[in-house]
Amino acid sequence: MTLPDVTPLETPRLILRLPQESDWPAYRAYRLSSRSTLIGADEELAWTHFAAFFGHWLLRGFGRFIAVDRVTGLAIGHFGPFRPAGQAENELTWTLWDVAHQGRGLALEAAQAVRDHAFVTLGWPSAVSYIEPGNLRSQALAGRLGAVRDPSDGTACDVWRHHPQGTLE
Questions:
Q1: Once rounded to an integer, what is the mean pLDDT over residues 93-114?
Q2: H or E stretch including 33?
Q3: Is 29 helix (H, G, I), strand (E, B) or coil?
Q4: CA dist list (Å): 96 to 1, 5, 45, 58, 119
Q5: Which pLDDT belongs to residue 169?
Q6: pLDDT digits (tens, 9 = 90+) for 35-44
Q7: For the chain, which terminal residue's Cβ has fewer other Cβ atoms within 10 angstroms, N or C?
């Protein structure tokens, strides 16, 4: 099996492309940092999650893109559509791997591109983002994307619902 032939998404400052093995060092550094304490800072688990980026593309035909800074060429995070087994709804995810990339609008730029891809290209009628209650930066980003908080469905995370209005067409 090979990864699907997917045209990268482009924004003014980023290229969002399929994952590559060369992204592992940057992803590993993120996963072993304090930024990922909620999901576990363990190298074996980090490798498993990294490999899942590739597997999701193979199994579903879509998945999370790796955001690459156009100027530096560095992989700075992962963004995109996601639906693991057993999850009833399509999900939009976003993560910047290093605090140095925060506060510059890069997450919003990337998240808008993958949201539009999910609604326009993939044809999704809606999507959710699961956000930890204390993650104020992610909640603010969800709001800037036009998502609204749904009543809790019993999960430990807040559910933010995205609708296609406002996407590029």
A1: 96
A2: none
A3: helix
A4: 29, 25, 18, 23, 22
A5: 47
A6: 766 555 688 9
A7: C
